[in-house]
Write a structure and sequence with these properties.
Blueprint: H1 10-19, E1 21-24, H2 30-53, H3 66-76, H4 78-89, H5 99-105, H6 108-118, E2 122-133, E3 142-145, E4 161-166, E5 177-179, E6 192-193, E7 201-202, E8 216-218, E9 225-228, E10 234-236, E11 245-253, H7 265-273, E12 287-290, H8 301-316
Antiparallel strand pairs: 1-9, 2-11, 2-12, 3-10, 4-9, 4-11, 5-8, 5-10, 6-7
Bound molecules: 2-oxoglutaric acid.
Length: 334
């Protein structure tokens, strides 16, 4: 659906609240996403040169396209491919940061769209993710879940927007997002830790509501925005092409929704461990991206890098990454 004036109209808002999703077509044009693609391509190139100089890789597939190169590395050797993707995404996907992702999260077109749903005061919710869905990588199939499943329970009553944005055309073949419409109003559904994929939560098929409802494959152009609520069940299947399905997903919330703005990670962590849950996702930093009431609180690039790095290093030290976890059990124990 096309936006008029960059915002959701009354009718489009009604659609979003009824269906639990909205597809805003071609919000960002090629010129607006190309800098991020280039930043990523440069990071890929640098890492592969380093691996080659250390004698750990022979062919760096220099000269291949943005979509192809990482796929070729994975195809040559899965471990090298996994190392490259880890380098980009970091632990649990939370390590990706740089000037262009920051520009994108703060892009006026995205903020305008978010504002038309949740108002002018906007926090970028801590979980934003870069996804390199590489062909043949089982770990990149994402099971059915609600984003709220990853957040602390206290955030269930709040609307947190997910903006899923492909950097290349997303199709059924390359594993675009799949959505279960009209299934977002019943609140949180039981999630389990996925047995074969560490770090993923899963809603079992039989627990998906509205089972008669058809799932929707969000086949969209690069730069389109798939908007979801935190309660909308979604998943994505394997990439069956020979190229990478690159995408990012960013989240926005109102500052009244619990967050860790202004909190140092150790205080945040101490409270989290005492079960005083201050933020929806304590291990990663929330930050203000737009405020008409207090414009001086909007973070600049250096503050963003500092915040994200401080949290990332604090929480990835040692091996107890305290992701909020109300789901302690696995399917077999049900
Ligand atoms: O990009 C994908 O394949 C899955 C994305 C997702 O699950 C999310 O944005 O919450």
């Amino acid at each position: 659906m096309k936006l008029s004036d960059g915002k959701l109209s009354e009718e489009q808002l009604a659609f979003f609240y009824r269906e639990g999703y909205f597809i805003a077509e071609n919000v960002l044009n090629d010129n607006e996403i190309e800098p991020l693609r280039q930043e990523l391509a440069a990071a890929v190139d640098k890492k592969l040169r380093q691996m080659k100089s250390e004698g750990r890789i022979e062919d760096t597939h220099e000269g291949e396209s943005f979509e192809k190169r990482t796929a070729s590395i994975f195809l040559d050797n899965e471990q090298n491919g996994a190392e490259l993707m880890y380098h980009l995404e970091g632990y649990m996907g939370g390590g990706f940061r740089g000037r262009e992702i920051f520009r994108l999260i703060q892009h006026p077109k995205l903020l305008r769209l978010a504002e038309s749903i949740i108002g002018s005061e906007l926090v970028s919710s801590s979980i934003y993710r870069l996804r390199t869905k590489v062909p043949g990588d089982k770990m990149k199939e994402v099971p059915w879940h609600q984003d709220a499943g990853y957040f602390a329970g206290q955030c269930d009553p709040h609307l947190i927007l997910t903006f899923w944005i492909p950097l290349v055309k997303a199709t059924k073949e390359n594993g675009c997002l799949k959505i279960l419409p009209r299934a977002h109003k019943q609140g949180i559904i039981e999630h389990f830790w996925c047995q074969e994929k560490k770090g993923y939560l899963v809603i079992e098929e039989e627990d998906l509501p509205e089972r008669g409802q058809k799932t929707m494959a969000a086949q969209v152009d690069a730069g389109s925005v798939v908007v979801l609520t935190n309660m909308t069940p979604h998943s994505s299947a394997s990439n069956l092409t020979d190229k990478v399905r690159w995408s990012i997903d960013v989240r926005y919330q109102n500052p009244k929704t619990p967050n860790n703005i202004g909190l140092k990670p150790h205080l945040n962590q101490a409270d989290h461990l005492r079960n005083v849950e201050l933020a929806c996702y304590p291990p990663e930093a929330d930050f203000i991206v737009q405020s008409r009431e207090n414009p001086e609180t909007v973070v600049n690039f250096d503050q963003f890098m500092n915040l994200r790095e401080t949290y990332y290093h604090h929480y990835t030290k040692g091996d107890d990454y305290p992701a909020p976890s109300r789901w302690t059990h696995e399917p077999a124990l049900k």
